[in-house]
Design goal:
This protein has no helices and ten strands. It is mainly β. The strands form two sheets. It has a six-stranded mixed beta sheet, with no helix packed on it.
Length: 114
């Protein structure tokens, strides 16, 4: 069973950037698609971005043009580059398979505030 460990979250000012990482305990080469999800306080977890093994990406409208998902199969790692961060991006960020979820990791906290 795949285990996922997210890292890279921090407190950042509006307009700043962060790069999140997600390390998987198994090879992600054979996983068709991976995704980044986030959960803000008092809200449901939402899918933010996905990337297939073929390199196709999709983003929720609120992050298009600001976030970029990528994957390094050799390192079994998925990344989320986040630019032009806004206070509404504040959330705990998780990675997982898409659409067939595995167990959730602990997530990484991103706080966007001045």
């Amino acid at each position: 069973q795949v285990q996922l460990v997210e890292s890279g979250g921090a407190l950042v000012q509006p307009g700043g950037s962060l790069r999140l990482s997600c390390a998987a305990s198994v090879s992600i080469f054979s996983i068709n698609a991976m995704g980044w999800y986030r959960q803000a306080p008092g809200k449901q977890r939402e899918l933010v971005a996905t990337m297939t093994s073929g390199g196709s990406t999709n983003y929720v409208d609120s992050v298009k043009g600001r976030f970029t998902i990528s994957r390094d199969n050799a390192k079994n790692t998925v990344y989320l580059q986040m630019n032009s961060l806004k206070p509404e991006d504040t959330a705990v960020y998780y990675c997982n398979r898409f659409p067939n979820l595995a167990g959730w990791g602990q997530g990484t906290q991103v706080t966007v505030s001045s």
